[in-house]
Each structure stands twice: as C-alpha cells, then as structure tokens.
Sequence to fold (581 residues):
Amino acid sequence: MEAKTLKKRTKLTKAERREELIAYLFLLPNMIGFIIFTLIPVVWGLLLSFTNYDGFGDVKFIGLTNFKKLFQDGYFITSLKNNIFYTVFSVSFTLLFGLLLAVLLQKKLKGSMAFKTIFFFPQLTSSVAFGIIFVCLFRGSGPINGVLQAIGVENPPKWLTSTDWSMITITIVSVIKNMGYYMVLFLAGLQTIPVDLYEASSLDGASGWKQFKAVTLPMLSPTTFLCSIMCLINSFKVFDLVNIMTDGGPGRSSNVLVYRIYQEAFVNYKFGYASTYAVVLFLIVFVITMIQFRGQKKWVNY
Amino acid sequence: MDGKKTKKVLHKVVIYLIFLVFASVTILPFLWMLSTAFKFEQDVFHFPIEWIPKAIRWENFSNVFTQIPFTTYYWNSIKLSSIITFFTLVTSALAAYAFAKLRFRGRDKLFLLYLATLMVPWQVIMIPQFMVITKLGLVNSHWSLILTQSFTPFGVFLLRQYFLSIPKEYSEAAKIDGCNDLKICFKIITPMAKPGFVTLLIFQFMGIWNDYLAPLIFLNDDKLRTLQLGLRYFQAEHSTSYALLMAGTLLTLVPVVIVYIFAQKQIMNGLANAGGIKG
Fold:
C-alpha cells in the first residue's frame, strides 16, 4: 500500500530519499549473500540442465538432450519409483502417528509431559547418529531380528541388505525420527480448537470417536493440510538416512532423487546431467507448493 | 455407574499401552546405544540383550579420541554453528527491519523475490552453489559453509513477521527522540521481537549442527570436518567394531541431551514455529 502511494509521486522529498538510502543499506549485507548464493544459483541451475558441463572445461549447450536421456534412464525411473514409495508410506505413517500421539497427549493424563519429551527426542538427534544406531539394530543377526526370532518369526527379513526391504527399513526409521515433530505441530493445532465446541457436542451426547470425527478432525483440517504439505516436500528431500544406512543399495533398491543428484554431480562429476535431476525435483516441489497456495484458500481460514 | 468407571479405567490403560509402545520404539534404540558403548566387542550382539553390560570397557571412549580427531570435529561444529547463526541473526534482522519498517521503491517486489526463492529446496541449487564456491576458490574451507548458509531468505521472512506485529508508534516515538534506525532496530525492535529471534536461533543452530549434506560436498580435509561428517567417516572405517561406533555416537549426542533437558520447551516450540512457517 505505502509503496504504491510512493510510486505515484515522481519526486521524493529529502526525508523520503534518506529513508530509501537507509533501507538499501540495511538490506545490503543480506542481499549480497542472497544474490550470490541463492538467486544466481537458482538461475544457473536451470541453465546447467541444458548443458553437458562435467566440472572441467567449457560449458556447452546441448538443448533438451539431458531431458530426453533422463526419461530413458532406468536409474532415474528406479530412483523416482523408490522415492514415491518412500513418500507414500513415510508421509502417511508419520502424520497418522503424529496425530494419534497428539490427540492422546491432549487428554493430559499423568506422565504425558514425559512421554511428549521422549517422542520428540529423535527429532533433535542428527540423521547421521540416528541412522548409525539403526544400522546396528537392523543387522541380519542384530537385536531386532533377535527379538523377532525369539517371538517365533523363523525367517526374519534381512532389512538393509535385502533389495525388497531396504527402502521399507529406511521408511520405518524416518517415521520414528519424524513423528514427534508432527505431533508437536498437531498439538499446537489442537490448542486452537475452542473448548466450548467439545462441551456443546458432549451435551449432544457425542464422545470419544464420534466427537473426534465431528469436532476434532474438521477443526484440525488447516493444521493437517499444512503438515501434509510439509511432510510431502520433506519426503522428496530425503538423503541423509539413505546415505548412512544403505548408500542407495543393495543395487539400486533404495536410491532416491536427491541421492541420484548427489551421485551424478559429486561422484561422477556430471554437473549438467545432475542438474536435470534437480530440475525434476524442483518441479515436484513446485507442484506441491502450488497445491498449497490453492488449498490454503479453501482449508485455512484466517 | 460401575460399568462406566471400568470403561474409563480401561480407556486409560489402552492409552498408556499405546504410549509405552511408541516410547519403547523411540527410546530403546538410544538405550541400546548407551549400553553397547560400554561393552566389549564380543558381547555386543549377545541375545537376550544385556541392557546392563556384565563387563564394562571404558577404553571404548578413549579409543574414539585416539583414533579420530574428535575434539577437532567438535570444535568445528561449535564454531560453524555459532558463526553462521550469528551472521544469520544480524543480517536477517537488518533486512527484516528494512522490509517491515522502512519505505522504499520496489520493496514489495523485492520481498516477493525473497519469498519465491524460499520454496526452492537447497538440494536443487546445491550444484550451482558448489560451482560458485569453486569459482571463489573456497571449496574445502569453512568459508564455503559460512557464506552459503548465513544469508537465508527464511530468516528475513521469519523476523519480518515478528517485526510487523510491533506497532509503528514505538519506532516513531524513538525517531522523535532522535534515535537513528540502527538504534531503533537493535535497541527497540529487537528486544520486542525476542521470541522471533529465539525461534530463528534454535532453528538455525540445530540445522547447522545436524547438517550433513552441505559439509559432505564442501569439505574434504579431515581437520575441517564437522561432527556429523566425522561420525560418518568413523562409521565407514569401523563398520565392524560396533562398541566403538556406539561410543562415538554417544559422545556426539551427550551435549544434545543436556541442552534438551534444560531448554526442552523452547526447542520444541522453536523448531515447530519455524518449521510451520517454512512449510
């Protein structure tokens, strides 16, 4: 608003010009860094995907060759499929468990605070430390399989060293690590629901599951929506756990998008081709963000 | 009456059971790490699990320090997290002040540009960013991380939100009293937006402390490695000495646990607030 009125008048007063100068000086430190390390790379990254740059020598533009290659690249298709598997299951279970824990904690039983502290803790630990612990636990003859055998599972899965189970194992570990975070977000959302809504529905005879369906879920929908978007976007950025736990293996069985970007760029030095992967990642996140903007109008009313 | 009461008790029992299941899934892995860190290698995979080791091997911990420069990794992580967080807070506060409290042409368009880049994941621009750092000759130096992570548009966005909620009467009154903008920004606005700064501080410090991918691509030298990177190489080198590996992992987690005990609420809210906005 204020900027618009400023624009209409062509001449600025001395005080206004002074204010502008001060504003630019305040912006300067952040803007220099922002332009060099964020803005230029955003543009440069897009351009790179049309080149065959390999880290040395000249940059040569090769049109859409990289993109054509991408869709015939079995490795790309596999990593995308794995990533989508990870997204579907990690997002659903993380949100489901996060919501479940939040709703139960909301009842404020004795000891709830202690449980909340425990559930959130994995979120604080680095993926490196967390991943390393689970690599040991999921070892073929490790403690988890020990427990499984003790309760009568004769052939427990080989987890991280099995092509069928590697992605599942990483998904399980990510759910354990992240559910506490969404639990806290859901708890914040639950606190915004007015108490009298519950009281009113109790008077109408609703309780437990009925009340949850009639009051909690609809009132919580803005939080649920935001959490889903966040969790979705994060699921496409997964890298750390994959790198620590399986290195994308065995074979290609747990390779994901960002892991492919990393490998093509920083192991094979195919900067141009790796940027094509990055563009795909960007497009995915872009579409999700657009859904968010659209949905916000519908779901979030403030 | 009695039926209702038993139903209520049953209800509680079920909730506690669910809590216990989830608590064991989250906490038992850490307890296993804790006990393994004190074990002799041959006892690590004994079944049933020995939660309290029969024989304690303290050398695991001293071995961690003699086999890798653990203190250097610690120092690097502390140094980088503090410097980057400090720069983020200062440059974000200045820019947020300009966006929230000053008038200048092109302000809204510029802010929109900041907002637009917020939704580009870092993983998308890490390759061109690496090339910029290479051009500047800063690969394999701590400057690479400091320069690429100190100027986040996110910090500007977050602080601007807090600054906007402060009525402009405060800065106007200060101006009449003869304060300049720098003084208003840091002496008046900053203290009033303290929750915003605490949120950004926690979010940024934890983010840098736990960061793995950026140090992985920017740093090569052993003596430059951060704690997370060092731990990863330690894992690669000692993939079969589990007791030693768990001792190293435990040592990286001790400060996190201590800070968590004292600032639990702030950390939880800080991470949730910042994340909720970042979305």
Summary: Residues 123 and 178 of chain A are 6 Å apart (CA to CA). The mean pLDDT of chain A is 87. Chain A has 13 helices and no strands.
